[in-house]
From TrEMBL:
One GO biological process term: regulation of DNA-templated transcription
Span of domain Resolvase/invertase-type recombinase catalytic: 55-192
Pfam family name, one: HTH_17
Organism: Saccharolobus solfataricus (Sulfolobus solfataricus)
Chain ranges of the HTH merR-type domain: 1-52
Keywords: DNA integration, DNA recombination, DNA-binding
Matching InterPro entries: DNA-bd_dom_put_sf, HTH_17, IS607_transposase-like, MerR-type_HTH_dom, Recombinase/Transposase-rel, Recombinase_CS, Resolv_N, Resolvase-like_N_sf
Annotated protein name in UniProt: ORF1 in transposon ISC1904
GO terms of molecular function: DNA binding; DNA strand exchange activity
Lineage of producing organism: Archaea, Thermoproteota, Thermoprotei, Sulfolobales, Sulfolobaceae
Domain of life: Archaea
Length: 192
């Protein structure tokens, strides 16, 4: 977001001219709670005649490296369903882990307004929890999330539940505790 002064500098106009542009509808300010104006960079660039092409991203994720074949199948499925795309981003890791390399790259691109659409096979491919928050963040940055299938995969839900149990027991009892080891062993038995 640009302050009015920064928008004026980029456009090479005075503040009075900027107010006139707003009045005529050439550019729309984002009005903060304080009443101050901010301008989106893409709106200023559009007035300057600069139009950036935003990317369509295919995103695929699996929980563990033993599922690499599933990852390949997921990518193939996405490529078959979406003919025109710019980039494929893949991750191997839990949907609970918000520090996945590919996910962070995608999030940075969305926040920089570089993405117009993110296509995933299932909603839990992006995040296990908080999908609605991510969707609202995308909307705020002019990005759409397209989910091709709505049902969740049960086996990965079980894996995520096990990882939650193990993580919390490790924090509760300590990672070297015998109680932690018991919980971990029970969780593994549940998974199998």
């Amino acid at each position: 977001m640009l302050r009015p002064k920064e928008a004026c500098q980029r456009l090479g106009i005075s503040y009075a001219t900027l107010r006139e542009y707003v009045k005529k509808g050439y550019i729309k300010p984002v009005i903060l709670q304080s009443g101050k104006w901010r301008f989106r960079e893409e709106d200023v660039e559009r007035l300057m005649g600069i139009i950036r092409k935003r990317k369509v991203i295919l995103y695929a994720r699996v929980s563990s490296s033993t599922q690499k074949d599933e990852l390949v199948n997921q990518v193939k499925y996405l490529e078959e369903q979406v003919k025109e795309y710019d980039l494929v981003i893949t991750d191997i890791g839990s949907g609970l882990n918000m520090k996945r390399k590919g996910f962070l790259k995608l999030l940075r691109m969305i926040l920089n307004n570089e993405v117009s659409r993110v296509v995933v096979a299932y909603p839990d491919r992006l995040v296990r929890f908080g999908f609605e928050i991510l969707e609202e963040t995308c909307k705020a940055h002019g990005c759409e999330i397209v989910v091709l299938n709505q049902e969740d995969k049960e086996e990965e839900l079980v894996e995520d539940l096990v990882s939650i149990l193990v993580s919390f027991s490790g924090k509760l009892y300590g990672m070297r505790s015998h109680k932690y080891e018991k919980v971990k062993k029970c969780a593994e038995e549940l998974k199998n």
